[in-house]
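Sample intake sheet
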Amino acid sequence: LSATPTVSSTGLGWLNQPTGATATDGPLGVEVYCPAQPSQHNLALLSVAVPAGAYTCKALIGNAAADAGYTGFAFGFTDGTKSVIAVLQTTNNRLYIFGMSALNLAAQTNILIGSASTAWQVCAGPPAWYEAFDDGTNIGIARFQGGTGRVVLWSSTYAASYFGARPGSVVFGTDCYSQANTATLFSFKLQ
């Protein structure tokens, strides 16, 4: 567990800031808020450059929205143009992995994990630990689940990944569709 993260201490900065979205230092960590977007998914995303070589980025993430609307948190990778992110959608209590050529879920071009039969049932319950990792050859996103430990949700070599190369940043934020949402980063360690 890290010290309570702040926007400054994490190095996170805006990658995509929809109208009205904010990133603030809350009492428990970094809070990314996005107002409801009436007819489209909209990602409020912060990013930070990753170090050269192998690394892990571990984050304890919570999501404020109740089970209404397609809202949730976002966590993963970006090269500044394309993104591969885990998106928790509260409507159906599922975690999806999306590859996008734009920073808007309406523009997703590649669903890596996402059909109703393959999505991860992980939304309900307290905040959970996630990890974006790079071992020098492969990148991936994992979740730590009680009783089962670390579960890799998606991984790929750089060349075979959606990016075709090593992405330069990790991202954290929220998706807001039919209702406002706040995603909170309770712990953040990039090493």
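Comment: The helical segments are 7-10. The longest strand covers residues 181-190.
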